[in-house]
């Protein structure tokens, strides 16, 4: 890994790929972070612009940007840090595509050259307890997706709701930079998910001329210590 300063609140950066299918030219850099070990000077020492908020928000932001910087360094040779755009989305350097996600003490970033990948979306989520998944299901799933849950036991329903949430977040992150239009959980559906960690999603609305309703995209997912990690990647 790079010799740039690593704060005590972050574990050594890792390039382990936990998802089922490795993507050519795509870097996944991750770390574990502990807000309790964040130091007031860590942003300055890391040469990253600080972000406002409580220690958790600051630590997850710093961890995510450190992963993104390392991924950009590997892809482009330039250790740049994505700025925050007016739409709150990361601003990636010219010629680079990427995505950042963080949650429950884990942060990671996908980075690749634009010549190989048009869009990348990464998301990490804590698995929902059955009772909470039941409360949230109608907000996350389409009517057809809800019907497909009916014959599953509560634990499997909660897992499917968690996975649908994560994959739709990854889908948004991959597509938003291409269409510059916000869309929501009911604007896409999870068609298939398999035990090998492969998934298929479909858009239910027109987002752009080259992304009409009915467009299908592939994703993948894996479980990591009680978390769900998902990815949607759009080849160039």
TrEMBL record:
Pfam families: 4PPT_N, ACPS. Pathway: Siderophore biosynthesis; enterobactin biosynthesis. The keyword Transferase applies. It catalyses: apo-[aryl-carrier protein] + CoA = holo-[aryl-carrier protein] + adenosine 3',5'-bisphosphate + H(+); apo-[peptidyl-carrier protein] + CoA = holo-[peptidyl-carrier protein] + adenosine 3',5'-bisphosphate + H(+). InterPro entries: 4-PPantetheinyl_Trfase_dom, 4-PPantetheinyl_Trfase_dom_sf, 4PPT_N, Enbac_synth_compD-like. GO terms for molecular function: transferase activity. Residues 54-112 form the 4'-phosphopantetheinyl transferase N-terminal domain. Residues 119-211 form the 4'-phosphopantetheinyl transferase domain. Keywords: Enterobactin biosynthesis, Transferase. Belongs to the P-Pant transferase superfamily. EntD family. Involved in the biosynthesis of the siderophore enterobactin (enterochelin), which is a macrocyclic trimeric lactone of N-(2,3-dihydroxybenzoyl)-serine. The serine trilactone serves as a scaffolding for the three catechol functionalities that provide hexadentate coordination for the tightly ligated iron(2+) atoms. EntB, EntD, EntE, and EntF form a multienzyme complex called enterobactin synthase. This is Enterobactin synthase component D. It comes from Pseudomonas zhanjiangensis.
